[in-house]
Amino acid sequence: MTEHSRKTAASRASGRKSGLVLGIESSCDETGVALFDASTGKVVAEALHSQIALHAPYGGVVPELASRDHIKYGLRLIDQVLVISGITGNDVRAVAYTQGPGLAGALLVGAQLAASLAFAWGKPLIPVHHMEGHLLSPLLADPEPNFPFVALLVSGGHTQLMRVDGVGEYTLLGDTIDDAAGEAFDKSAKLLGLAYPGGPLLAKLAEGGNPKAFAIPRPLLHSGDLNFSFAGLKTAVANEVRRLTGTALPARGAASTSQPTLPADHPSRSDLAASVQAAIVDSLVSKSLAALKQTGLKHIVVAGGVGANTRLRDALTAGAARIGANVFYPPVALCTDNGAMIAHVGALRLAEAKNDYAINVRPRWALSELHAPASL
To answer: Potential cystine with 302: which of 2, 243, 257, 307 (Cβ 3.0-4.6 Å)?
Structure first.
C-alpha cells in the first residue's frame, strides 16, 4: 500500500469518529489548507500555495494581489485536501480559520470561505489566532515539548519571547521595539541585491562568508531585559554597503538619494551576509538563553519562519545544551504560514466551535487577549 493509500484509508476511518478539523490560513502571502484529526493528534492531509512569484517583482507583499490570489486558490486547495483524505464535508467536525492578525483583505477571504463552507455543511466555526498557530506548531513535532516552556516567536512581523504554561496561557517576556528579525533579514538582503523574499537567500549566501568580517551591531544585547531591536542593524548594513560601493551619505539637509545595493560580483558580499546573519542569530540566542535562566524553565520552542534558519537552530541548540536545556522545533515545512497549524489549534479549541457565521476578522490581535479553552 502506498503512503497516499494509507493516508486515505486512515482518514476515512477517522472521519467516522467526527474528530476532523479543517483549517484555512490566509493571513498574508500563503494560502494553506489542512485537515487535522483531533482523535489521533495527527495531520491527515494538507495543501499549500505560496505567492512568492506573484509578489517578487514588487519586492514585497502587495495586499490587493494577495487577497485576489487567496480567492483564486482557496477552494482548489480545499478540494485537493478532501480528495487526498477521501472524505466529504459531512465528515468534518468543524472549520477553523485565521481570524487575525494579518492583512485585512486576505483575512476576509479566508474567513468568508470558512464561514460559507461551514454554513453549507452545517458545521461550527473556530476562529484562530495566527500567532497561536505558530506558537503551538512545535507540538506537532516528535518529540513534542511539555508545558511549561519558553517560546521564541520569530518571523517577518514578530520577534517575541513568551512563557507558555498551557494552551491559551501566555505571558509576554520580551518583544521587539522596532523591526522584527525577519524584517532585518529581508531588508538586509535587499541591500545586498538579493531578490524577495531575501531572508533564505541571505542565509544561503552567508554559507560561503566570514561572520566576523564586519562589525555589525547587536542592539540591546546587554540591555538587561528580554527585548529586541533590529532597526539599527539594518542602518549599519546600509552604511557598510555605501562604504563598499563608494557612495557618500547625503549632506545634512540635502534631499536623500536612493540607497545603493551591493553588486552580485562584489568580493565582500558573502562576508557581509554572514556577518548580518551572525548578528541577528547572536541577538536571538542570547535573549532566548536569558529567558530560560530568568524563568528557570528547561524547555524552549522556536516557531515562525526564521525558525527554519540553520545557523539559528545550531547556535540555539548548542547554547541550550550548555545550560542543560532542550530546544524543540516544528518541522521546517511548518515554520512558514500553513494550514496545519490552524487546523491543529482549531482541534485544541474544539470546545469553542460555534454555529455563528458572521464574518469578523482582527488584523491586530494581541496574544495576551487569548484565554485557555474550556476543555481540551
So the answer is: 307
d(CA 312, CA 281): 6
Domain count, the chain: 2
Question: Residue with C-alpha cell 537567500?
Answer: 201
User: Tens of pLDDT along 268-293?
Assistant: 999 999 999 999 999 999 999 999 99
DSSP conformation letters of 31-95: EEEEEEETTTTEEEEEEEEE-HHHHGGGTS--HHHHHHHHHHHHHHHHHHHHHHHT--GGGEEEE
Residue 238 lies in a domain: yes
* CB contact at 8 A, 315 and 327: no
What is the pLDDT at residue 14?
Answer: 36
Name which of 197, 200, 201, 149 is nearest 170 in CA terms: 149
Q: Answer whether residue 8 shows pLDDT above 60.
A: no
As a whole number of angstroms, the distance between CA 229 and CA 208 comes to 26
Angle at Cα 122 formed by Cα 121 and Cα 124, nearest 5°? 110
Q: Is the pLDDT of residue 253 over 90?
A: no
| Cell numbers found for residue 140 | 506537532
Rounded to 5°, angle at Cα 367 from 222 and 50 = 95
> Cell triple for residue 339?
494550514
- Closest by CA to 336, choosing from 100, 27, 106, is 27
Compute and round to an integer the Cα radius of gyration of the chain: 22
79: domain CATH number is: 3.30.420.40
Residues 44 and 105 in one domain: yes
- Mean pLDDT over 365-373 rounds to 92
Q: Indicate whether 245 and 344 sit together in one domain.
A: no
Q: Which helix (H) or strand (E) holds 152?
A: strand 149-154
Give SS3 for 175.
Answer: strand
CA-CA distance, 362 to 376, in Å (whole number)? 24
Residue 176 is given by DSSP the state B
Predicted TM-score of the model (pTM): 0.90
Say if residue 198 is in the same domain as residue 296: yes
Peptide bond into 143 cis (omega under 30): yes
Residues 79-109 pLDDT 10s: 999 999 999 999 999 999 999 999 999 999 9
